[in-house]
Amino acid sequence: xxxxxxxxxxxxxxxxxxxxxxxxxxxxxxxxxxxxxxxxxxxxxxxxxxxxxxxxxxxxxxxxxxxxxxxxxxxxxxxxxxxxxxxxxxxxxx
Length: 94
Fold this sequence. Notes:
Elements: E1 3-11, H1 19-26, E2 31-35, E3 38-44, H2 47-54, E4 64-69, H3 79-92
């Protein structure tokens, strides 16, 4: 199954302090911390799968977050971010 890049965006609420640890634990080599409670993760499956793996759903053990599948990318940012995205994009594209 091909890999996909997802954006995980923390939301305020109970257990929200646990999300950073959950991302690091479940995606130790496949995440990039963008800061301010936002991460990129590379994973096979769906946004729902990522949510369940992190403990966001069904019960919110790791807090609340919005998870978006990345379809394209563009912008201005730290070159390390683009290096990570490019490497994982190419690894997930086929």
